[in-house]
Structure prediction request, 642 residues.
Amino acid sequence: MASVLAGREDYEVTEGEVQFEGKNLLELEPNERACEGIFLAFQYPVEIPGVSTVNFMKTALNKIREYRGQPSLDAVAFLQLMKEKMKLVEIDQSLLSRSLNEGFSGGEKKRNEIFQMAMLEPKLSILDETDSGLDIDALRIVANGVNKLRSKNNATIVVTHYQRLLEYIVPDYVHVLYKGKIVKSGGKELAMELEAKGYDWIKNELALA
Amino acid sequence: MSAITSDIDLKEKIVRAFEQTPDKKNAQRVEAIQNFQKLGLPSNKSEEYRFTPITRALERNFRFDQLNAVPSKINSIDQFLIPDLEANLIVFINGIYSADHSKIISPESEIIISDLRKAVNQSEAPAYFEKYLKSSVDPFTALNSALWQDGVFIQVPAKTKVAKPVFVLHINNAETEQSIAHTRLLVVLDQESELTLIERSASLGENNIFHTFAEEIIVKENASLDYIKIQNDEGKLHQVANSLIHQSDRSKLNTFTLTLNGSLIRNNFHIAIDGENCVSHFYGLYLLNGNTLADNHTVVDHIKPNSFSNEFYKGVMDGNSKGVFNGKIFVRPHAQKTNAFQSNRNILLTDTATVNTKPQLEIWADDVKCSHGCTSGQLDEEALFYLRSRGISLNEAKAMLLYAFALETLEPIKNPILKTYLDNLISIRLNKS
Prediction:
């Protein structure tokens, strides 16, 4: 689902449309979707040798600003913004000067995703299994970053298989997806119930219905 | 007409052209033309020239029975220079040294630059001339050895660091007619000396150009050479460059060959590591488009023990272009404790672009570390999607990835002005495509 929203070409949408702020996302290129305010935090962020996170973010941010009709940030303003966001997600500058994700640990990669999210200030963020492969400390830092970025003007979809992440990022709504469909919705209590009882009871409920 | 009969015709034409030259009695040249006759021009079955139909291109496009017309004067060569680079400038126009455009700025105590035609009959040069680059191996070396028109002899005295680089610029002016040029370079770095040598080929006009280079470079004990070649011809250049670098004990070598334009470019580049504790960085980048064919045939020959070599060539092929890479590494029986690495990576941007890459390792010593790898493929889709998902358009994402891919090859270049210049050439090329 996360990949479809962001526009990965491996998936073909056979029917339906995705409305986002009055636009059909499916008609937009991945970069246009990003400019509209969609952000996908990757489950497995790609390593790109030779491109530093700093340069990459500078290009991306100015592309998005251009799309929104805002002026480009100059080097000084960009650096200032970067410093501010770095603090927010507890990421080190030395990491950002290196080639994008190259040789990063799992935790560092995920932190870099959240850093990019902080920089680009999307309206809708989709965190795709962000908790996979993270130890407790990394999970806490990533979750803190996400929490600090929460505001009235944005929304975040967290895709996960575990309750663990939800102890740190407390959801407003929980939807259970089964075979591509939302089969149950509720508040944060639903996640706790799932953690306690497993998924089987929902499957059973579905079988009965 | 079959390929073989026409091959004989062309060979005969070239031999006849030699007999018209004032140097036809010179013993070395006579030997060379005999070698050329023996070797013959490579047919399409010749293993070494399998992917590069140079003979056919020469047959179709050139008349060897006529001399170059006197080229019209070139008023300004500024467009071919490297901005802000203070260098000793040596200019050849259609294969002939141009005193008007050349300018030596380093003192003679640092570097001796002389006319090779005169130098081969004087004290120092004959000891090195054709010592390692033999006319009996490759037909184009033989052809050049017989027919070379002009050349330069550069010698750096022992314990001398040449502060300003030497920039050898070859311009072929083919605005009115074809141009055929054969030039030579003989460079000797004496013990503990240091030099940066830049060579660039460029052209004017739309007529065909054939240029052979024979380049012998001798790097003695503890000497250090940075050698950068820029092949960026706008015209219809067909060139075969035979370059041989001979390294002695503890010498250091950084080479970088950048190929951007031309019709057919064949580089035969041979590094003979005939010393211990030598270091050789052997880098290349070809960014091709249109119908350009660039063929890098390279040899790293480890003759003595305890040396290190790292060969690193990369290519991006667009349009109908063709890339060819052949990397031979020899590790001779005595060359124990050799470290030899080779890598050739290619990206194809279209369905009609091709690349042929072949590593060839021959190792006779048993205590060595060698590795090689070659890849060819498309841009990484995952990486493209990642960049796009952050707001960067497809074209820009491609350019970013290609630029990052290419830039790695600039690592050995130390001169910051030169590096910026090359970086700029690369980014212009990659943003265009």
Remarks:
- Chain A has a mean pLDDT of 90.
- The CA atoms of residues 57 and 116 of chain A lie 7 Å apart.
- Chain A has ten helices and nine strands.
- The interface with chain B takes residues 6-9, 29-31, 33-35, 39-40, 42, 45-46, 48-51, 56-57, 59-61, 63-64, 67, 99, 116, 120 of chain A (CB under 8 Å).
